[in-house]
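Subject: complex prediction, re-run

Hi both,

The earlier run crashed halfway through, so I resubmitted it with identical inputs.
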Amino acid sequence: MAAEFKPMRSLIYVNLAKEDYRHKLLHWLHRYHVQDSISQFDPYVSKYAFYQALPVPQDGERFGTVKMQLTEHYWLLNPFTPDTKVKTLTEYFPMDVLKWQGNIPDDNVNDEQLDGDSARSSGGNNGLPPFMFAFVPVWWEEDFKGSNRTVEDGPNYRWQCTIRYPEGVLVEEGDKWLFEEVIPKFKEMPEVTRILTSKIMKEVNNCPYYRVMEMWFDGPSSWHKCAVENTKDIKKPDWASQESFPYLESGFEIQSIFLTDIAYSDNLTQHRGWITMR
Amino acid sequence: MAAEFKPMRSLIYVNLAKEDYRHKLLHWLHRYHVQDSISQFDPYVSKYAFYQALPVPQDGERFGTVKMQLTEHYWLLNPFTPDTKVKTLTEYFPMDVLKWQGNIPDDNVNDEQLDGDSARSSGGNNGLPPFMFAFVPVWWEEDFKGSNRTVEDGPNYRWQCTIRYPEGVLVEEGDKWLFEEVIPKFKEMPEVTRILTSKIMKEVNNCPYYRVMEMWFDGPSSWHKCAVENTKDIKKPDWASQESFPYLESGFEIQSIFLTDIAYSDNLTQHRGWITMR
Amino acid sequence: MAAEFKPMRSLIYVNLAKEDYRHKLLHWLHRYHVQDSISQFDPYVSKYAFYQALPVPQDGERFGTVKMQLTEHYWLLNPFTPDTKVKTLTEYFPMDVLKWQGNIPDDNVNDEQLDGDSARSSGGNNGLPPFMFAFVPVWWEEDFKGSNRTVEDGPNYRWQCTIRYPEGVLVEEGDKWLFEEVIPKFKEMPEVTRILTSKIMKEVNNCPYYRVMEMWFDGPSSWHKCAVENTKDIKKPDWASQESFPYLESGFEIQSIFLTDIAYSDNLTQHRGWITMR
Amino acid sequence: MAAEFKPMRSLIYVNLAKEDYRHKLLHWLHRYHVQDSISQFDPYVSKYAFYQALPVPQDGERFGTVKMQLTEHYWLLNPFTPDTKVKTLTEYFPMDVLKWQGNIPDDNVNDEQLDGDSARSSGGNNGLPPFMFAFVPVWWEEDFKGSNRTVEDGPNYRWQCTIRYPEGVLVEEGDKWLFEEVIPKFKEMPEVTRILTSKIMKEVNNCPYYRVMEMWFDGPSSWHKCAVENTKDIKKPDWASQESFPYLESGFEIQSIFLTDIAYSDNLTQHRGWITMR
Amino acid sequence: MAAEFKPMRSLIYVNLAKEDYRHKLLHWLHRYHVQDSISQFDPYVSKYAFYQALPVPQDGERFGTVKMQLTEHYWLLNPFTPDTKVKTLTEYFPMDVLKWQGNIPDDNVNDEQLDGDSARSSGGNNGLPPFMFAFVPVWWEEDFKGSNRTVEDGPNYRWQCTIRYPEGVLVEEGDKWLFEEVIPKFKEMPEVTRILTSKIMKEVNNCPYYRVMEMWFDGPSSWHKCAVENTKDIKKPDWASQESFPYLESGFEIQSIFLTDIAYSDNLTQHRGWITMR
Amino acid sequence: MAAEFKPMRSLIYVNLAKEDYRHKLLHWLHRYHVQDSISQFDPYVSKYAFYQALPVPQDGERFGTVKMQLTEHYWLLNPFTPDTKVKTLTEYFPMDVLKWQGNIPDDNVNDEQLDGDSARSSGGNNGLPPFMFAFVPVWWEEDFKGSNRTVEDGPNYRWQCTIRYPEGVLVEEGDKWLFEEVIPKFKEMPEVTRILTSKIMKEVNNCPYYRVMEMWFDGPSSWHKCAVENTKDIKKPDWASQESFPYLESGFEIQSIFLTDIAYSDNLTQHRGWITMR
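This time it finished cleanly. Structure:
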C-alpha cells in the first residue's frame, strides 16, 4: 500500500519531573535525540522545532502545566502506518528520559533501552500523566478572536492546552459547554487577543486527548486575571473533575504549556551538533 | 476534507509605481514579508525565491513590463482551499505596499492593514493593472526550442510573460494564433535560444491571465530585434488591443518581466533577517 | 494528469573505471552536477546526499563492488511521468562522465553532450555493467536482524547490494533461496549486526535489478569472514552464474557498495559551490 | 591610531525584573537586538551566543542569581577605543528594556531611546544591581579542578559568577581568602567536577566586577549541598557584606548565573530572523 | 615579516557599460568570482557582501553614478603586502569583464585572462573612469548628522560617493571647502537624515580617490532636491572641474552609488553556488 | 602577555593503519572530534576543513603517503602559547585513535584518555612515523610554476608532501639540492602544472618536518611518470636515506598526501552533527 499524502502537525509537551533533571534532559535532546530524529524522518518531515516552555504561572499547576518544552513536527505523511515500521537505526532512548520527563516514577527505572514509539506512549496508567503527543491539522480549525493580529502588534504570551472530557462525558456535550460557556466568556475579556482551537486527530496515534486550544495574553498576570480570577463564575459542570476551572483533572484531562512567539531551535535549519560552551 | 497533494509553482510579478518607492518596497519585503511568509507556509512550500527584474528594455512598456521582481513559490498543496483559511498570525501588509507596487492609485491610500490574500487580488478594476499572481505546473507543458541548453552555454536573458486574450476571443482561437503565427516566427530567429509555455491554473486563485511563456535571448538588444523589429510582419489579429505586437493591452492582457538565471534570494535557505549595512 | 504523491528513495552506485578519473569525476559532480541537480529537482526532492564508497575489501570484486560513491535521493513524486518531461535547463553531462564511471568503454567516447536520463540508463548492453539506478520504498520492507541497534552501539561497516536473479529464474524461486538458504546463514553469524532488504520498484525506471539488501559488520575483515569464508557451504544453486557465493554475475547480477554511517555531503543543506583549496 | 588585535571574551548577565517581561525581552532580543548587533559588529566579533539561564536554585538569591540569559561575545579587538565610536546605525534600545532587565526601577521609565553603550552601563547607582558586562581573556587563567573532563563525562550544571570585594578590601586580600579558604574547600568536595577562574579586564569598559569564576556540579541539589550547606563552616571574613557565604552583597558584589553546556542560539550561524510559530 | 593585524573595509563600485552586459556580469560574478574569491581570502576576510546599485536618479550622471553594485569586504589584514603575493589559484578574470564594467573600451578586448589585481587597477588612463577600489577604516571617522538613527526609523536611501580634488588642489584646501561650504549646507536640509565621511587609505592600494562620504535621504526625489536643486547656491570653487555641483569631474574625480539598507548577498554566509532558475 | 595576531595555516596528515579502522576513525572524527574542536577554537580559527586523501598511487609508499585525510586549520593566533593552556573541556581522544592512525603500535593500546596536544605529538620514536602536524604561512612562499592557473583549467591532482633532510644535513645543503636538482627537473616536465613550496614554522609546535611542497598533475599516471620514472636520473645525494627518489626515509623524512581540489567538509560552515544514513 502506497503512503498517502497527509500533512499534519504534531505537538509533544515535554514535562520535567524536577529541576535536577533539566540539563540532563537538554543533554539527551540536543546531543542524541535531535540527530537521531533528523536521521530518521528528514525525508518526510518539513519542520521540526523546539519551543521553550515559559515558567509555570501562578496557579498554573491546576491546568496541568508542563515545564520543559513543546516539540513540534510538520509531517507530510502519517508516520504510524505499517509501511513505516522498519527503522534502519532505532533512537537512543534510555529509560531515564521518561523519569526526567515525569512519565514514569522516579524510583522505578532500570537501564533498559526503549524504542521511541513505546516511550512516546508511556504514562497515564501508572499514576503519572500520560506523555502528551497529539496530531492536529496543519491549519487551526476554528478562529474565535484576533484573526487580524500581526507581528507589529507586539509579543504574545500564548497559552496552549490539550484537553479531554472526563470518562462518560460525550464530546458533543463537552464541546457544547466549551463553546457556549467558556469561549464566549474569554472572548469578551479585553486581555485575550487570540482564540484558536482544533480537534486532535486521535486516530493517528491513539492520543488520549481530544482537543487543542490556544489563547493569547499580554503576559502571565493577565492570563491569571482571565483564566483564574475571571473564570470563578463559570458554572461548574456536573461532570467536573476538580473544584475550580478548568474543572478537568490536571495532567490527565488537561495539559498546558505557556509559550512565546518563536522556537528556540528550528532543528532542520539550525541544529549544528553538540557544540559546547568554552 | 483532507488536503490533496498538488505540487504547483506560483509566479508573482512585483511592479514599482515609481523609483521613490523601490527601497521602501525592499524594506517591507525583507524586514517583514519574507519572515511572515516563511512563518506561515514553511511546512508546505518547498521553494520560495526572489528574482530581480532586469531594467525595462527599449519598448518594453508595451509588453506590460514590471520593474521590481519575480516572487516564486513551489507549493506541495493548494493554499486556497477551505482547510487553509485560518492563519495564526496574519501578514503585516500595509496598504502602502499596494501603492508602491502600482496596484492602487498613489493618492488613494489610507493606513489600513490588509490581509495578504485580499492584497494579492488587488488592481485590475481601478484603472491599474491587476496584481499578477499565477499558479502553473511544476514542469513546463510545452517546449518549442532549445531543450538541450545547459549552464555551459552561457548566461541567458529571459523574457517571461503572462497573457490573456482580449474579451470575447476564445482561448483556442488565441492559441491557434500564438502557436501558428507567433511561436514559429520566433522559433526560426537564431537569436532565440529557448521557447517554453504552459497554461495558467486559473482555477486555483482566479488569476486573470491564461498562459505563461518564456523566451531566451542573448540580451536586451537581441530581444528588441526579435520581439519589436522582427515582429512587424506578424499580421495584426482582428481582436488586437494595441496597434503593434504583442497586440494585447499592456499591463492588462500582457505582463512581462526580464530575468537572468538566478534568484537574488532563495529565501528558505538564504534569508537571515534584517542585517543592515554598516 | 495531476502528479501523485509517491515518496521514494533512489540509489545510484557510482563506479570508477580507473584511479586516473577519480578527481575528474569529483570535479564534475561538485562543480556542475550538484548545482544542476538542485536547480532541477529542489521543489520535489527532500534529501539528496553523497556517501563515499569505502575501498573494495578483499574479494569484493566478485560482488560487483563499485569504487566511487552512493548517490541517494528522497523524492516526493515519481520523476519519470510524462508531466515531468520538460526541463528548463538540461544537465551538463559530457559523455566522458560515463567513461569515468565505467559505463561505456574507455576508447569509445566522442564529445557528445548527453541528457541526464539517457546517461543514467547506459551500460549493460555494451560489455560493461549497467548504471545502477534503483528506486526503493522510503522504509525498508523486511528487517531480519538488529532492529534495536542505536548510534551508541558504535560505527557500522555497511554492505549494501542490489541483485537480480539470472535470466530464467523466477523471483519467487530466487527469493526462496535467499530467504531460506542465505539470510538464515548470515543471521546466525555473530559478526552480522543488521540485515535489511526491500524489493526494487522496477516499474519506475525499468531498473535491471530486483532487490536491495543491507548487512552490517564490524569492518572489512569481519565482512570477509562472513561473506566469503562462512558462505563456502552455501550450496551452489542450479542457476549459479559464478562458481562461488554470491553465485550471481559480478556487476551484472549483483552490484555492491561498502558504506559507513554518514554522508560526506548532504547536498541540499551543505553544498556551497566550488570553493577550492587554497 | 590603528586598531590592535585584542582577542577577548565578554559576558553579559541578563536578568529579568518579573515574569511578565520574559517574552517581551525575548521579543526585543530576537526581533531587533540580534540583527542590530550582527549588523554592527559582524566584521570583528568571531562568536556571539545566547545561553539560557537555568531557573534560580534554592537559596540562589543570595548569590545574585540572574534569571534570563548569558550573552557571550568573542571579540578580535577592543570595541571601546576612540576609533570605534561612530556607528552607522545605532541599536534600537528602548528604555523599557532596562526596566525588563531590572536595571532601572519599574516606575521610572519614559519612552526614551538609548544608545546601547549607555544602556549597558546602567544600574548600580539607583538601588538596583548594575548591568553585568565583563570582558575576560579568551582562555581561563586558572584551572583548579577537572582539567581532564570531556563531553563523554556527561552533562554539566555550571555555576558562573562575577564578584568584587567590598569597598576597602584590597584585591590581594580578597583573593587570598578566595584562594586559601574558599577554593580549597570546594576542591575537596566530590560533587564539584570543575573549578576555573579569571580576572576581569576592568580597563576595557570599567566593569564594576573584579573576577569571574566557574564551578560545575551534577545539578542544583548538589550545588546547594556544596555552596550553601558545606560552606557554613567557611569563616566569615571581617569585611563580609552579608551574614552567610558568599559574604558578598547579592547583586552588587556578586552576580551568578546557572548554565548548561550549550548555547540556545549561536547567533552568527543560527539566527534566521523573526520566524514566528504558526 | 609577519602579517600585521589591520582591520579594514574595502569598497568596489562596479559599473556597467551597457544593459546588454548586466546579466553577463552577474553570471561571471556569481558563477565564478564569488567562489574564486572565497577560496582565496576566506581565512582573513570577515565579511564579503554585494549591494545592488539602485537605478541612477535624475541628474545622477554628473555625480559619476555607477549602475551595477557595491562589493564590500572587511579584511583582517592588508592583502597587498609582499607576504600575500602567491595565490594557489588565480581568479578566473577574462578581459571581457573589464569591458562589461566600463573600465576598458568596448572595442579593444582580446581573449586575454587577467590576474585579479591587475584588473582591479584598470581604467583611468584610457579615457574611461578608473576601477573604484578603496580601502577605508572599519568605523566611519566623522559623523555630522543622524547618529541616533535606528532601524525603527524606516528605510534609507543612501548616497555613497568617493571623491578626489582636482590636480593641484591641496587636500586641506579641498576639505576646507567640503567641511565649511558643503556639509553645513546639507546638514541644515531637513531631508538629509545622516552624514558620514572618512578618508580613504590610499597607501594600501594606491587608490586614486581621497575621501568617501555617505548621506541618507528619503528617496531619489529628496536626494535630487537636496543635491541638485539646493546646491545651486554653493559657490563654484576656483578649481571646479565641471560647471555645477559637485564641481568635480564625473567618473574621475567623483564616483557615486545609490544604495538601500541591506546586501542582496552576504557571500560568506549566503552563497550556495550557481543554482539556476527552473 | 597579550595574544599576538599570527595568521597561520596548519596541516595534519591523518594516516590509517589498516582498512578495518577507516569507518571507526571517521566515526570518531565526525561524531566527537569536529564538535569538540569547534567548541574549543571557534573564536580564533577562521577555517577548519577536511580533505579526503586520494588512494595511494603506484609506488606512493616510498613517499610516505598517508591514506586518510588532510585536516587543515587557519589560525588567527598561535594556539601554543602559555595563555592558551587552560581548556574548559578537553577533547575526547581515546588512545585507540592513535592506533587507527598508525601513530602507536596496534598491540600496545590501553583505554587511556589522552589530551589532544599529547596525542598530536605522538609517534616518531616508537618505530612508527610521527603524527604530521605542521604550521605554515597563510600564503605559499615560493611559486615555481603555474601561477596563472584558474578553475577553468580543469581538475587538479595535487601531490603535497612535507620533508626534512636526514640527520646531519644542513637545511641550506638540502635546499640547494632541492632547488637546483629537483625542482628544475620537475619544472621542465610538461605534465607538472604547478609547483609551490614553503618552510614549515617549526618554532610553533616543534614539528619534525622542515618544508612543505605541492606539485600538481593530471592524475596518478602522470604523477608516476614524473615522480617515479622521470626522477631516475636525479643523482642520489650522499646523504640519501633510501635508494630511490625522493632519497628520504619514507614516513619519517617524507610524508605525502594526494588531494583533489576541494574539501569534503568545510567544518565551520558545513558540519551539522552526527546525522546518520537512514
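The helical segments of chain C are 22-41, 96-100, 116-119, 171-187, 202-205, 220-229, 267-270.

- K.
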